[in-house]
């Protein structure tokens, strides 16, 4: 199984390299936006393609990197209004791994400007200096991963404190998990707008939910526990894992890869088979959706065959993401065995 995961990882990486122009842009992608590039440098560095990673960052600097350290323009609504810092975090990790500090350092400064001074969470939307905004587990945990990659341990500790405080606020912590804090620091529980409910509430009784709202904080907490050696962080990581474990089909979603990364890291650290089994299960689901040429495509239906000659920003986003998760699953599991 380990060998097969790595083989599928390399298929995805090769597809990305084969569809890259010399200037770092994508072949047959019209109207390119940040969405098609933000995960790519991390995925390519993780799969042994540093030159291709540099090319995608070259294109990013020329077309998307702003003077204040942000990345624009974006296509997906969640990258504008719900999980604003999510793409920024991936760019930071990929830039750090590539040694592209001229990107990483301004991007980290921009990121840190969005950390709430009171509770340590990161704002889920673009926020002017000294302003308040909502903060959720997704943008905050992604920012935490980026802070660790950049060596900003104090900021990362504050992320862990936020993730602990939001657990303490839950009115029914065994059954429901609200993922978002209001600008006033109180838990966001008003979910009359069903469009926002998906990413702001996880209910153990429902299936096919926003698993990355639990899986990403879980993975981050495994990382910070490892980096500091502090048991309170590993205990908190276990809380997030246990809550997701109680849910219906938590390991079967298209966005369960974050939890698989956390499980693979915990298997490397502890050797416990339950984490290995979950990581393998999620990896199997990801591989089952891969096309014969190594891609994962959204055109023509979910994970379907492309129905036109050009690709979408989402196609490169998805292929980069699944290539990355498979690589992180594979390397952590192989490191133990």
What's the arrangement of secondary structure elements?
Blueprint: H1 2-18, H2 40-46, H3 50-63, H4 78-81, H5 85-98, H6 101-112, E1 135-136, H7 137-149, H8 153-169, E2 176-178, E3 180-181, H9 194-200, E4 201-203, H10 212-228, H11 231-246, H12 257-270, H13 273-288, H14 313-336
Antiparallel strand pairs: 1-3, 2-4
Helix pairs in contact: 1-14, 2-3, 2-5, 2-14, 5-6, 5-7, 7-8, 7-10, 8-10, 10-11, 10-12, 12-13, 12-14, 13-14
Overview of this protein structure:
This protein has 337 residues and is mainly alpha-helical. The chain contains 14 helices and four strands. The strands form two sheets. A two-stranded antiparallel ribbon has the order 1-3. The protein has a two-stranded antiparallel ribbon with strand order 2-4. Helix 1 (2-18) packs antiparallel against helix 14 and helix 5 (85-98) runs parallel beside helix 7 (137-149).
